[in-house]
Amino acid sequence: MCLALAFGLMAMPSAHAVYAIAQYGEPRYPQGFAHFDYVNPDAPKGGTLVLANPDRLTSFDKFNPFTLRGNPAPGLGMLFESLTTGSLDEVASAYGLLADDIRIAPDALSVTFHLNPKARFSNGDPVTAEDVKFSLDTLKSRQAAPSMQAYFSEITRAVVVDPATIRFEFRSNNRELPLIAGGMPVFSHKWGLRPDGGRIAFDQLAFEQPIGSGPYVIDRYSNGRTITYKLDPSYWGRDLPVRVGTNNFERITYKLYSDDVARLEAFKAGEYDALVEYVARNWVRRDVGKRFDSGELIKREFPQHNGTGMQGFVMNLRKPVFQDVRVRRALDLALDFQWLNRMLFYSQYRRIDSWFANTQLQAKGLPSPGELALLEPWRKSLDPAVFGPPPSQPVTPPPGSLRANLLKARALLADAGWTYRDGALRNAKGEPFTFEVLDDTSASAQWAPIMAQYTQALRRLGIQVNYRSVDFALYQKRLDAFDFDMTTIKFPDVQVPGAEQIDRFGSKAADEPGSGNLLGLKSPAVDAILKALTQAQTLQQLLDATHALDRLLMHGYYVVPQWYSATHRVAFKNTLAYPAKLPLYYGANDWIISTWWLKSQPRPQPGPQAAGH
């Protein structure tokens, strides 16, 4: 589905209560729909799904996913519901979940939700408007992570209309804000209350059991390395259309392994049930063996239509060495993607050439009149190249191959004041060009051969690179404090960009420890484009703003883009099953958890000595 079809024509906000809303156009599913198309409504319930680390996390020390300090356990999102939920075959819709109807004010400066009277928290309490207000006030406070504060910053307040009705008020007419309000996780005001009535500060909550209204609750955990969730037998929402065919496992267990090698070997040994493979070499060479040969383990590639997001070597602009765009462009020229793809990736990847690649949001060709209207006020402060086509990523065709790119890189570095002398590339002060690439230990094995190629090319330019891996806890702590030179980051993809872009690129976020602005980007032009993006009233305005943002980011060379796959690579036990129809926009791990199921197993027949017992 293309973005334009998904959005449809612009519609004025409705002043009457509805079951669902869409940022543009109308929701895909009509009122009274039975279930989403991509689920199996007859999927059997029961059994245990065992998974490994869904990301680089190797241990956890808290059950609160909304604060900065510490590492939250994987899977905590299953404990919390929101007022609305989207579907995986639309890009910007919201269907009632905790809320049973939605009312957007005629001036679009507020949205009102009525709570489903059946909604209950895991402790049996009804979900009230006071709990919703408490959740927003907490997430907007300084006790929550800066990314939370930034994401909900355009919601000025929540007003309790009555015990079952809550109104969110907005700073501006922004079509995304009703969806942001509806998607806010809701938790009980009793989470963190002591028996004596005192309260544990929100940012001090560690292993206190969260009180949410989601389908699962924590069953048990051990040593910060394993955690099991069980389906809440009293879960209130199991028969809602948005939940039919989902949450099919009785229990879900995460086992956290110390590194990628251990995780892969554990899967091949049968210790867990499904592996989403992000490493092409593993998929071709290592995800093999007797269990694959026998059919006990299955490999499938599932097509997906997600935007790629941006994955790349991220430069920290707070470091003087990266503050010249010519230097950043030279570092981009030094990466030989074609060689990596051919020799290490088995030609499975495509090069990322946009912050919104694989979507209609990607800037192409010359700026449109709408883009020019946004860019022109900043022409004097922008590189003239921004007003031309987006930059193409360097290629290495024979016979020149990487050598030709390194010659261009050397010229750019010389223009920026870096010349080779006394065995190193040096600036006018004689300081050598050196920096550190920070990684976490769990991923170092897969990145080592990639870094070997890249650092060798940089050494040919006279640049000294130190590759350092640390445990994940320290790695995350250093990222939160912006204490790094360069690192590899996968920025999550978005189908409809909005408030998360302000946290990612806004000037204010650059000074907020723990924010998403790892780049340290401070640009008045970018800030202005972000404002236009979040206030877009039509699809065309959104596209113009996103295209303009993409041009500024790509011409800024803040990241050395890496690569992406057009499919999800999943290996899994043959005891698992999945729906016949795939969603359009989905993450593989969440899709497995929410819609897969365990095949019914025949009951063992009692032996002779067991008969009659």
TrEMBL record:
InterPro entries given in the database record: Peptide/Ni-bd, SBP_5, SBP_5_dom
The superkingdom listed in its UniProt entry is Bacteria
SUPFAM superfamilies from the entry?
Periplasmic binding protein-like II
The signal peptide here is 1-17
**Keyword tRNA processing found:** no
For this protein, the record's Gene3D superfamilies field holds: Dipeptide-binding Protein, Domain 3, Periplasmic binding protein-like II
Q: Name one Pfam family in it.
A: SBP_bac_5
Q: Which UniProt keywords apply?
A: Signal
The reply to whether Signal figures as a keyword in the UniProt entry is yes
Domain Solute-binding protein family, chain residue ranges per copy: 96-491
- List the PANTHER family: ABC TRANSPORTER PERIPLASMIC BINDING PROTEIN, PERIPLASMIC BINDING COMPONENT OF ABC TRANSPORTER
Q: What is this protein called?
A: Solute-binding protein family 5 domain-containing protein
What organism is listed for this UniProt entry?
Answer: Paraburkholderia hiiakae
